[in-house]
């Protein structure tokens, strides 16, 4: 119970701030806020060809196959040492499912808000669909959060903390490229981070239970299965 309360508090805080930000965006009918305009113009003024090429390379890691590979690696690493490969598979699948379901939530929110992106002439990479929340920011934050959580479980010392910090830097870098490349407003990125924070706070405790169950051969820990059996027999 004690582990659930901080996660619930983090989720509640993230949802509250996200709701407030979404209200501001929708009240403005998708138009950029003052901070959006200022940071967008700053990014345009400081762009260069070499940095833009590096930004495009980095931003490509925030979508497609790579984040799901990161989530799968997180599921594998999160298991107890010595756990057989077949019994790691449910945790891998659960981690990938956490990322995939987070994407479903993001797409639903994006469709509902339907915020326009910055003007197309400002783009230096391709972009599709509505802007809020940023898909790359959300996806990279979810994948980075899953892997950081797994690394801290696998190596709780200094090495694990350093590796988890690198995950965070990658997610920050991917999100920053979306503003630098001109395809997102900064508040799109903030919305993606808030959504990812909420989703991780809700799903990581569940993943931890699956990963900690040494006899699990399904996505449901043995404690859950035993309660269901008792309910059926009772």
Please provide a written account of the structure.
The chain is an all-alpha fold and about 230 residues long. About 75% of the residues lie in helices and about 0% in strands. It contains 9 helices and no strands.
Task: List the keywords.
234 residues; mainly alpha; 9 helices
**First-to-last CA distance:** 25 Å
How many beta strands in the DSSP annotation? Answer: 0
How many whole angstroms does the radius of gyration measure?
A: 19 Å
Please state the average pLDDT score: 89
Give the fraction of residues assigned to helices. over 70%
List low-pLDDT spans: 217-225
String of helices and strands: HHHHHHHHH
Give the biggest sheet: none
Count of helix runs: 9
Tell me the overall shape: globular
In short:
With 234 residues, the chain is an all-alpha fold. The protein has helices at residues 4-27, 34-45, 49-59, 65-77, 85-113, 135-154, 158-180, 186-212, 222-233.
């Amino acid at each position: 119970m004690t582990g659930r309360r901080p996660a619930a508090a983090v989720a509640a805080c993230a949802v509250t701030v996200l709701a407030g930000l979404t209200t501001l965006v929708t009240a403005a009918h998708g138009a950029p806020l003052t901070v959006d305009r200022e940071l967008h113009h700053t990014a345009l003024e400081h762009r260069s060809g070499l940095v833009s090429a590096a930004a495009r390379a980095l931003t490509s890691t925030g979508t497609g196959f790579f984040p799901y590979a990161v989530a799968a690696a997180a599921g594998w690493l999160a298991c107890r040492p010595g756990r057989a490969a077949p019994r790691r598979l449910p945790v891998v699948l659960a981690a990938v499912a956490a990322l995939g379901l987070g994407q479903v939530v993001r797409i639903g929110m994006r469709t509902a808000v339907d915020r326009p992106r910055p003007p197309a002439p400002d783009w230096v990479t391709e972009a599709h669909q509505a802007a809020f929340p940023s898909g790359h920011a959300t996806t990279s934050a979810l994948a980075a959060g899953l892997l950081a959580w797994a690394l801290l479980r696998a190596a709780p010392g200094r090495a694990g903390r350093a590796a988890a910090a690198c995950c965070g830097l990658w997610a920050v870098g991917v999100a920053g490229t979306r503003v630098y490349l001109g395809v997102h407003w900064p508040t799109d990125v903030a919305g993606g981070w808030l959504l990812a924070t909420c989703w991780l706070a809700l799903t990581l405790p569940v993943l931890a239970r699956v990963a900690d169950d040494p006899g699990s051969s399904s996505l449901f820990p043995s404690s859950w299965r035993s309660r269901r059996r008792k309910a059926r027999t009772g």
